Amino acid sequence: MSETALAEAWAEAWPRALAAWGPYTRLHAPVLHEAPQRQRSFAWFSTADVEVHIDLAEVVRLGVDDHPVEVLAHEVGHHLCSPGDLRQSARIAARVRVGLQEAAEVDGMVALVSNLWSDMLINDRLQRRAGLDMVGLWHALPRPREGLWQLVMRTDEILWGTGPGVLTAPDVDVPESEALLCARLVRSYADDPVGGAAGFALLVAPLLPALDRDEKAGTALRLGSGLVCRQHEPEGSVPRGVATETGLGAPAVHPADDARVVGVDATQAETPDDPASDDGDPDDGTFPTRSASDVDGNTLEPADLHAVLRALGLATTEAEAARTWYQEHAARHLVPFPDRPASTVTEPLLGAHETWDVGDELADVDWGASVARSPVVVPGMTTVRRTWDEQPGDETARQPVDLDLYLDSSGSMPDPVRRRAPIALAGAVLALSALRAGARVQATTWSGPDQIAGTDGFTRDANRVLDAIVAHFGGSTSFPLPLLARTHLGDAVTGAPPTRRGPCHVAVISDDGVTSMADDVTGGPWNRPVLVAPASTSVAARALAAADGGGSLVLQVYPGASVLSEIDWMLPGYDVYPVITDADLVRFSSSFARRLWGARPRGSL
Question: Region annotation Disordered: residue ranges (predicted)?
Fold first, then answer.
């Protein structure tokens, strides 16, 4: 059959492939590539373009040119059944990754196992409900002899009642008990791909070390792995909602222990002991995070989110994934940011008419008044326009207070990219709250001397601000007093004015290293500092007064720490908020709003 005839035959099969999923299924025609595409698959579905792609050269090479309806319907299933879209694909991959934690090269196998799970759900539905010949398609495809593939084939034999040996190799050991469990798993989670993904990964994990990872063998089994085979998402694309979804990081349950699969009361199943909680060590900058047993749910860590996106083939850096993670987690904690009266709002007032001349805006002509003056319209002679005056209004315009945010990224602070850091999340809450109110934010990450990065000025770009929040140096601790001075006091060397343009709130995210803010007025041993000049003369104190927007120190220290008493006389005027856990973050949000807004007169908002 010629390439043109093959393309026509597959195009004619498209309506039948859509009908396999119901009479109301609509999707535009597939893209039939006559030239080789080098996609390591003969068929794939693009979630970005929402379209099916077929490599006809690969179809001929693999000998599946007589099964257009089955192949096309399978690809439509990646849109309607599993995964469906980028977010669902990330959710499945996240659960698969949890199930593969004990397997070697876990991240390298997430894409394959995720796609296998989706394929099994789709194929079972097409064979059982739509009556398509998926058995014939499997016969046409080259079938590897490794244990994983034999498990998949034996599972299909059980699901479709074909009997042993129809799809499996007769001279290869077949994991019968695992196949029975897998068949029950597929039927139990037929409409819940995310729910069964972790159990499937646990089931196949022991077979992965023996898997021949030859790409040719793998491609022969994959009937188009959607996102895994080909990714059309732009660089830095991160599906929204995955970072905050509870349960994606929960421990996986083996199908043999899953009441939904084996049909026993979950209360009778043996439950493993809870892992020991990580209490953390404040001396090395690690603090407790939510474990698998926490009631708040098991969301992904920033590093886990990046690993999932990388497994899906998305060109996303660790910083981009972390930026999305903190943005989504901060959204529910945003607080009303303070503002100040700026000026009296003026109201427009109708004025008199004046002559409209040639060269003025045509839209300014008041045609009714012009015709009333003369029924014969002569531009520049009889044409008039309305003027507008202004009068003071009864309302006062308000200007949001800008935010000058300093984030400690010394070695004692957790790396926000690697793990959940409530202290960094507090910084994201402040920054995003300010941006939501229309304020400008200057975000600066600092560590040792000359280790400074950030927005380099005030901005309303949320991505630039979040990039500064997740940046990490891991060096020594030395607060950037010169930058604080230039921002609020001006440059004493050049005489340049302050870079801020109005009231500004100064906020510092740090730990006990925040005392370096007072290095210009303190001396003595590091563990017993003393004032060598009045605290009111320090750069931190003078900048706070000049900023005229208040100051906050959000510190990763336990309540009652000795550094808190030192701050009282080192850095007077700053409000202090200890934040270590997620519960502290909630208290910080409410306390911040209460301190800045609780004393406002009623009706002054």
Answer: 232-256, 269-299
